Amino acid sequence: MKTLIEKRNYIIIFIIAFLLFFIFMGKNEVYVDTFKFDKNIITVMIYDRIDKNNVKKNIKDICRKDYRKNVKKIADNYDLYGGYISMKIKEYFKSKKIDKYIINENGDITTGKRYNDTAYKISINDSDNKVLKIVNLVNENISTIRDGEDSISVIGKDIVKNKIYKYMLNDVSTDEGKEIIKDKDIAVLWYRDGNITMSDNFEKYVK
Length: 207
Fold this sequence. Notes:
- By secondary structure, the chain is an alpha+beta fold.
- The protein has 2 domains: 28-106, no CATH class; 119-207, no CATH class.
- It is built from 5 helices and 10 strands.
- The protein has helices at 2-27, 52-70, 78-95, 159-170, 174-180, and strands spanning 31-37, 40-46, 101-105, 108-111, 120-125, 131-137, 141-147, 150-156, 187-192, 195-198.
- Residues 2-27 have low confidence and may be disordered.
């Protein structure tokens, strides 16, 4: 009888251990998926536990239905289309209490809350894929425009606004750009003629 009880206890302990392992390891499983619409490619990485099939269906609906209904009204620019869709996905995540994520839309990155108490490290590269800077983002977006070998990266919380600023800044000199963003809630890195220039508030994001 004692042996049977001991065996039963071992089985119970094993089951509890297995369940705990399943619960905690399940939380660390990352959901990754890619969605395409028009000229845009959006990849999402979600670090929270989710119903994958339901999330996939809803993101597809956002990319297809919301895009057709609303996006073409804002501008004849596929990059802004993509920014709008990223914003709608972010709003969907918030409504479902999905907090820890990365949205990669054509190379522009939107991040959620910290994962494992760590900020998301995003690299800014030149046209040869050489790393210029690594930035740490939490609940923010970085949007980059390339013009030959030059580039401009804008960090802020508003996805679409970041895109609008990067186009605006690309049409003016770096000094003029600094005046434009003065007192704005964005941070900017210019890479022109092989030189890096950062707005005063950009340094706080750098590794």
